[in-house]
Amino acid sequence: MLALLLIASSSALAQKPSKVPARRDSMAVCQPNGTSVYVVLLGDEHKRLYTTTDGFVVKKNKKGYFCYAKQSCNGIIKPSHRIICNIGQRSKQDNRYLKRMKKNPNLYIGNILK
To answer: pTM for this one?
Structure first.
């Protein structure tokens, strides 16, 4: 009986874990200045990224703020200079900036770990 239990447990440990998708619920995160913004986590345990609730890809900058993300010509995703706001709190300048941004997170997910 002990041998059977050891065989069963060793075969279970040898299997690779399957990819687990990230939750797609929006969640509130706190920016370093104390404001709260809502983001959505996409991907799995290996590749993941955050978006705004309306689909703009975001990334933290060196100061810890979530900013709208840009993809460089070599595919690396970098935070922009513009800190994210919730939809109802965006300024006219934010909305003008976002009109020029890509909104499809699927374009970014392959490059997120670079």
So the answer is: 0.71
